Amino acid sequence: MKNLLNQLLELYLILMDIQMPIMNGLEASKLIRAMERPDAKDILIVGVSANAFSEDVQKAKQNGMNEYISKPIDMSKLFEAIKKYL
Question: What is the pTM of this model?
Answer without folding.
Answer: 0.86
